[in-house]
């Protein structure tokens, strides 16, 4: 089954210095998973043109979908557009449609800071959606979002259906044994079901379980068969409960 | 002023699939900032040996300090040690001291899963601290932490003083004007004070301010001088309050 791989780039010194907690990663990873998209990497980088350029350039080569968050405002530290332009070796050009949008929002005469926000790498598409005040910007498979969580959520939700793939199916098993007591069975499991995504997450302070196992697949019959096989492999009464 | 650059590697499919929110990044970035260390990059990668190997290898070349979180338990998806070993081209070897630690915790006879946790890349140092049940593992400038936040916090706190550098100084200005009204002054500011770290963060729903400006430097006199210059540049009464 063909499947799109995605990467997320969070641009912002404020995250790296610990002054702001990144909430965009949690939102985007959950949403993309729900849409059936596999996120392969998340990277937080500085508000630095070279950093942005190198990361964008590398990720456009490596991933089917790339999402950037942050650095698209009017101030000196908003260098995402310049970084993308450098990374893909295209000039920054003023977009007339974006200019009209900004004039509608700010009035007919824009200052230098507002004009800066009309400049995009040549070849950028504007995705206009009725529910949005300003369009979402796309350059090839890179979708360029703002860093402000509320604005990002609004923009992502407006265009999310274009990313939908076949869904993932998930089963969670709550296990009262420690990880090392079931590690051999997990290993055996993956020999039998190599395509199963199998996760094992120890929990320190739960009274009724010590580990959560997650079984995932895009193929529901394969997942169901693997689950039955695992239940046979595990010691009697090891499973406290099953969630799907 | 020489200064150490750091990178953080979060290893875990559960973060990338949105099932778990990463809290280790917030903890580590805040702590490292407080210690005067500049975090340059955070990357979340899959529980995949090649992914880990390539990232570790690249980051050991690029950063003075590297912190990895996750993937050091006993199960099939804990492949951090194998990934590091591959990335730095060293064999995995059983560490006798680690073996003794684990026997003390689990009893004299270890199962295969427990024995797996005694294998480390050749050349790994064990940092034993009285307050810890098991030592922190270090390979060159890479510090290898568990993914479970409570264990990571305990281990990091036990050894954090070894990372301390000259501190950062920070001033926050709360501004009641929008970003585009002060962008020109910010630009001018950086021409006058190129070494200043200047951040501008719009706030959507605050009644008394629209932007928070952050001024940072490791040189306190430089920061104080820049602050005075900025206050002169900004329009009268633009600053609602100043926090240091």
From TrEMBL, chains A, B:
Database matches in InterPro entries: CinA, FLAD1_M, MoaB/Mog-like_dom_sf, MoaB/Mog_dom
Swiss-Prot/TrEMBL keywords: Hydrolase
Keyword Hydrolase among UniProt keywords: yes
One Pfam family this sequence matches: MoCF_biosynth
SUPFAM superfamilies recorded: Molybdenum cofactor biosynthesis proteins
Protein name (database record): ADP-ribose pyrophosphatase of COG1058 family
Enzyme class: hydrolase
Organism of origin: hydrothermal vent metagenome
Highest classification ranks of the organism: unclassified sequences, metagenomes, ecological metagenomes
Location of the MoaB/Mog domain: 7-198
A single MF term (Gene Ontology): ADP-ribose diphosphatase activity
Keyword Hydrolase: yes
E.C. code: 3.6.1.13
